[in-house]
C-alpha cells in the first residue's frame, strides 16, 4: 500500500482528502502545518505528500525548502494544493521541489490522475 501525508491547516480539507485517498488505496496520515509534516517525514517518510500552500507556523513553500535540506532515506513526491491560480506560486513550488500541483477544490478524479502521472496509482 502507498502512503500519503496530507498537510493542511483545515481539518475539513484533511478529512475530504483522506477519504478520497483511502478510496485510491492509500494509507493516510495527517499534519496541520509544515513543521508537523517535516517531523512526520523524518520519522516515517511517506510515498507522497499532499501539501497546502497557506498554513500557520510553516507554510507549504517553507516546508518544501526545508524538506530539500533535510536528510531522508528517500524523497517523497510532493503535490502542492493552491486556491490561488497564480503562475508565480506554481513556478515557486516547482522550483522548490514540488512534483505536481492541484487547484482546490480537488476531486477524486484529479487526485487519481496526478497520482498516476507520478506512478503511484
Ligand atoms: Mg491553508
UniProtKB/TrEMBL annotation:
Keywords: Phosphoprotein. It comes from the Bacteria. Residues 3-119 form the Response regulatory domain. InterPro entries: CheY-like_superfamily, Sig_transdc_resp-reg_receiver, ST_Response_Regulator. The modification 4-aspartylphosphate is found at residue 52. GO terms for biological process: phosphorelay signal transduction system. SUPFAM superfamilies: CheY-like (SSF52172). This is Two-component system response regulator. It comes from Sphingomonas oleivorans. The lineage of its organism: Bacteria, Pseudomonadati, Pseudomonadota, Alphaproteobacteria, Sphingomonadales.
Amino acid at each position: 500500500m502507498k502512503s500519503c501525508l496530507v498537510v493542511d491547516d483545515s481539518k475539513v480539507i484533511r478529512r475530504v482528502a483522506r477519504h478520497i485517498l483511502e478510496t485510491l488505496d492509500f494509507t493516510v496520515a495527517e499534519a496541520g502545518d509544515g513543521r508537523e509534516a517535516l517531523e512526520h517525514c523524518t520519522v516515517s517518510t511517506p510515498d507522497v505528500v499532499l501539501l497546502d500552500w497557506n498554513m500557520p507556523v510553516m507554510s507549504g513553500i517553507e516546508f518544501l525548502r526545508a524538506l530539500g535540506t533535510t536528510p531522508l532515506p528517500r524523497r517523497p513526491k510532493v503535490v502542492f494544493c493552491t486556491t490561488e491560480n497564480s503562475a508565480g506560486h506554481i513556478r515557486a513550488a516547482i522550483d522548490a521541489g514540488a512534483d505536481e500541483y492541484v487547484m482546490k477544490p480537488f476531486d477524486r478524479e484529479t487526485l487519481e490522475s496526478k497520482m498516476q502521472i507520478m506512478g503511484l496509482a
